[in-house]
Amino acid sequence: MSRHKKNRKKDSEGFIFPAPFAAILGAVALISLGYLWFCGRCEALGTQIKMLENRKVEAHKRVINEQYKWSNMKSPGNILALLQHYNLLMNYPDESRVVRLRYRSTESAVPRDLAERREYVQRAGSAVND
After folding, report:
1. pTM score > 0.70 for this model?
2. Whole-angstrom Cα distance, residue 66 to residue 72?
3. Which of 18, 19, 25, 105 is most buried (most C-beta within 10 Å)?
């Protein structure tokens, strides 16, 4: 009596799950998780941007408020009131003591030796704040 070996690979019992389908499902799962992470990150950055924009608006309001306070503090009326409050005797100078300078935009207003060496200050047109 001869014994025949039975091929057990062909007689598999249980559920067969194909490997390519499993790879595709794994890739879809990874892409889905990546998408969810990306969406969460974008929302977090969006809220952070809104918070920073609000802080910028508040800081700008404070700057405007401080500029307004500073302009009120340096007004001539306020300066005179503070001088009287601290008993300081100060007046504006007499007209005879004021030296007035005129600005000329022509090159002829600058002496020739300075114009050649360019050692004078040129007017750049920018505003000067006190």
Report:
1. no
2. 10
3. 25
